[in-house]
From TrEMBL:
1-deoxy-D-xylulose 5-phosphate binds at G560, A586, G587, N608, S609. GO terms for molecular function: glycine oxidase activity. It is found in: Cytoplasm. Residues 4-338 form the FAD dependent oxidoreductase domain. This is Thiazole synthase. Keywords: Cytoplasm, Oxidoreductase, Schiff base, Thiamine biosynthesis, Transferase. Belongs to the ThiG family. The keyword Transcription regulation does not apply. It catalyses: [ThiS sulfur-carrier protein]-C-terminal-Gly-aminoethanethioate + 2-iminoacetate + 1-deoxy-D-xylulose 5-phosphate = [ThiS sulfur-carrier protein]-C-terminal Gly-Gly + 2-[(2R,5Z)-2-carboxy-4-methylthiazol-5(2H)-ylidene]ethyl phosphate + 2 H2O + H(+); glycine + O2 + H2O = glyoxylate + H2O2 + NH4(+). HAMAP family: ThiG. Homotetramer. Forms heterodimers with either ThiH or ThiS. Its EC number is 2.8.1.10. Signal peptide: none annotated.
Length: 658
């Protein structure tokens, strides 16, 4: 049965949305890769928009709205299930160690400053270092593990379908619509799709969401204490202490940008215990009951991504970072309004994914082989010159790849530059129309790639996502899918190009012919225009052409070596036999070598290192652009025949003799 809504992600956000959508009459299916891995299992359940001291006005408004919804939302869930969600509007204390610098809270909700005597009366046992603190009576907590169980139970009771152990590998799209999702168990379809995959969202769509690890531990109140010593959440410096009614006390949480590195560490646990016992010294003697970790979904501005996507039937709800539990009810309401009623709350404009796609730099458009004059590369001003073969009665239809025509025959890369600005100037100077981008490096914000997706005008430059860093065919296929999504998010809806690299050899960076062929076959079946990077092997080139690749890209020499044309004979054979464009890729070190490759009859060049590592990269980019044009025109013009003897330039007849 096809569901009305297919939710990708079974954490608290996905569950809350599933319940709300089902209550409003939708048929809902939830895909859970690992129900216990969701960030909501590793949270402390604080409902603390004021104690968190949120400074972003839209975020604070969203959090406070959700906090207001909590009592009624919890009552509804508990009524459906008959289970206790552990909601406790206990208030939150935020002790401080130094009075100097204490400011009034930004929050407009009720809060109260307590001096040292008052705060110790209100919560005995605090450190003597505590000089006072803020009391936030409207804030509180919920037992996040109980809440997740209640939500799952409510969803199942209402008839939501769960598919556990299902991992989404790719989202299939056509003409701005999702047509299904590819999973490890097959292809699934629905009318509408909701991406709520938390820290794993970036593995499905190229959203700027990264995992932020948090370590936590649970203490137990000793049996000899008959009453709970702590009844308020303590929100301190680099620590929060959350007492539960079941006599456990939660300590959290570290903030670690270490990717998906698992496990608790001595350093992490030590930092929590040190901060907790400084704030509330009696904890030093409490037994440790449990330790665990989780991965928060963090965005660059630490705000969630909510609302519509580049596809009309795909909605996004991810990136909640530290406030996923707090924002669950308001997220569910807003998402259900969007999907079922097409109502978009004005507040959601502040959380749209497009806020990460500001374009500060505009490259020059190129409808012919347009090159920037290098007279003044340093201040950004330039003149242009245009060289067109038609002016010399030469016919050149342009570079045609997978039905798309480009006038420039030079492709450039984005890696190894000393700065983003240098890369921008070099791309403009080269006159190129295709720029290749390493999907993994953009995903991971690798050095030199921070903000890269926003650095070029993708309305004028065609993105060529590449699978750099992939050692196997399987890795390359997955990264290629992410690259296609990245291109769509940047406005290139019809971009199905991928530069295929499968390179298991870390020393020489030579491509794997078997893995390349395997990945190419699969990607062609999935509708990609595959541009495979290969050794200059004529047989492999022909085989890749036969499986449907859009080009072949033989290396001239090892990547980044600058050795020039070391494989000339094989490249000539490939050019002679190919029915698809031949792009010489890797090894070109100088414009003379670029021109020579084009003179052989190559259809295009891809050059990165020779430009990026030059002393003046924009000037070298300009020179490479000229070389590509000169080499192509020389090839079309036809060189003179080579002879083994001299031939005078001027005729001998009519000369004066004797």
């Amino acid at each position: 049965m096809t569901s009305d809504v297919l939710i990708i992600g079974g954490g608290i956000t996905g569950l809350a949305c599933a319940v709300e959508l089902k209550l409003r009459g939708a048929n809902v299916t939830v895909l859970c890769r690992d129900f216990t891995a969701a960030a909501s299992h590793a949270a402390a359940g604080m409902l603390a928009p004021d104690a968190e001291n949120i400074t972003d006005a839209a975020m604070l408004s969203l959090c406070q709205r959700s906090l207001t919804l909590y009592p009624e939302w919890i009552s509804k869930l508990e009524e459906i299930t008959g289970l206790n969600a552990g909601y406790w509007p206990s208030g939150i204390l935020a002790p401080v160690y130094q009075k100097a610098g204490v400011n009034l809270p930004i929050s407009q909700s009720p809060s109260l400053w307590l001096d040292q005597a008052t705060i110790n009366q209100y919560q005995p046992g605090l450190s003597t270092d505590v000089v006072g603190g803020w009391w936030y009576p409207d804030n509180g907590q919920v037992d996040n593990r109980y809440l997740v169980k209640v939500l799952r139970n409510a969803a199942e009771s209402l008839g939501v379908i769960f598919k556990d152990g299902v991992a989404v590998e790719a989202i299939a799209q056509q003409q701005g619509q999702v047509i299904g999702v590819q999973t490890n168990t097959g292809f699934l379809k629905a009318d509408h799709y909701l991406l709520a995959a938390g820290a794993w969202s970036n593995q499905i769509l190229p959203l700027p969401v990264r995992p932020c690890k948090g370590q936590m531990l649970r203490l137990r109140v000793p049996e000899f204490l008959t009453e709970l010593p702590l009844t308020r959440v303590l929100f301190g410096e680099n620590i929060y202490i959350v007492p539960r009614r079941d006599r456990s006390i939660i300590l959290g949480a570290t903030v670690e940008d270490v990717g998906f590195t698992p496990d608790n560490t001595p350093a992490g646990i030590h930092s929590l215990l040190a901060a907790a016992t400084r704030l509330y010294p009696p904890l030093a003697d409490y037994p440790i009951q449990e330790m665990w970790w989780g991965f928060r979904p963090a965005t660059p501005d630490e705000l969630p991504i909510l609302g519509e996507s580049h596809c009309s039937n795909l909605t996004i709800a991810t990136g909640h970072y530290r406030n996923g539990v707090l924002l669950a009810p308001v997220t569910a309401n807003l998402i259900a309004d969007m999907i079922l009623s097409q109502k978009t709350d004005p507040l959601l404009t502040n959380f749209h994914y497009s806020r990460f796609q500001n374009i500060p730099f505009k490259t020059q458009s190129s409808t012919t082989s347009m090159l920037t004059h290098p007279a003044n590369f340093t201040n950004g001003h330039s003149k242009t010159l245009s060289l067109q073969p038609t002016e010399f009665n030469l016919q050149d239809p342009g570079l045609v790849i997978a039905g798309k025509t480009f006038q420039s025959r030079l492709m450039t890369g984005t890696g190894k530059y000393r700065s983003i600005e240098e890369m921008q100037k070099s791309v403009a100077a080269s006159g190129c129309q295709i720029v290749t981008v390493a999907v993994r490096r953009v995903q991971n914000n690798a050095p030199g790639h921070e903000g890269l997706a926003e650095a070029l005008d993708w309305g004028k430059i065609w993105m060529l996502p590449n699978t750099a860093g992939c050692q196997t065919a399987e890795e390359a296929i997955r990264v290629a899918r992410l690259g296609r999504e990245m291109a769509k998010l940047l406005g290139q809806e019809d971009n199905n190009f991928v530069k295929l690299e499968v390179i298991p050899d870390a020393k020489y960076l030579l491509p794997d012919p078997i893995g390349t062929l395997q990945a190419a076959e699969q990607l062609v079946k999935e509708g990609f225009a595959v541009l495979p990077y290969i050794n200059a092997d004529p047989m492999l080139a022909k085989r890749l052409e036969e499986v449907g690749c859009a080009t072949v890209m033989p290396l001239a020499a090892p990547i980044g070596s600058g050795q020039g044309l070391q494989t000339t004979a094989n490249i000539q054979i490939i050019i002679e036999n190919a029915q698809v464009p031949v792009v010489v890729d890797a090894g070109i070190g100088a414009p003379s070598e670029a021109a020579q490759a084009m003179e052989l009859g190559a259809d295009a060049l891809l050059i990165n290192s020779a430009i990026a590592l030059a002393e003046n990269a924009p000037a070298m980019a300009y020179a490479m652009g000229l070389a590509a044009v000169a080499g192509r025109m020389a090839y079309l013009a036809g060189r003179m025949p080579m002879k083994s003897y001299a031939s005078a330039s001027s005729p001998l007849t009519g000369t004066i003799t004797g």
